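HUMAN: Ready with one sample?

ASSISTANT:
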Amino acid sequence: MKFGDQSRREMMKFAARLGLAGLAAGTGFHPSLGASMAGQSSLKIGICDWMVGKRSDPAALEAAMRLGLDGVMVDMGNPKNGFPPVKPEVQKQYLATSAATKVQVASVALGILNELPYKSDPRAQQWVADSIEVSRAFHTHVVLLAFFANGDLKNDQKGTDAVIQRLKEIAPQAEKAGVTLGVESWLSAEEHMAILDGVGSNAVQVYYDLGNSHKMGYDIYKEIRFLGKHICEFHAKDYDGLFGKGTINFPQVRRAMDDIHYRGWIHIESGSTEEDFANNGRYLRSTLQGHATS
């Protein structure tokens, strides 16, 4: 099933089929595929808006509600579409939709940095500055900075040095706003820490993608423990199948999260259909929000 437009009544029916009786009845119950586990963990399950085909679109919150998820990572957009979340009228739409669906705007992402790199594009620093203010408007605390494709930092010391210098310049704004800039890349935990040490600000941390790091051959369970408090948020991804059927051991991920006392957001960035996202969401609920098991 692909995402399409649905009426409010249709979304309520979908929520009811997932067992969200409180939400369907309009009681203000927060969407959750594992409502009975809500008191056991403050881990929250979200999804990236580009996964549901609603990049930079408030309708992504409605899609997340249909899936019974807690929140959405919002992409900032690009120069061609004028970065919609920067616009006050669009921000109001997000906040109104969030209130109506009880789905949070969880964090913000600058995916455009994969195409127009932070390390080299002179416009990028302003985009980061704008994303910090958007994060404040949404009452969120994390902005993902992407470093893939054209923005890749692997084996690029010159580019890495440029990124460190730019992050040093922007970090005070993020600190003042109470926003964390999360570096997501192909780098190892040690290489990420070298960037964080070079910047020297708690406002710059690591955005940890389970699937990407696993694909690079890193021991993700050790890396999570190594990075500890320097991880600001997670992407849940498995290149080898639906969660629980691929190669990521999510129970081990949960134990590593417990060891570092992580209790934040983990966003689904894996799957291609509504059924995939729903299955992955259910699996994360049972594995990450229940009691840790083997």
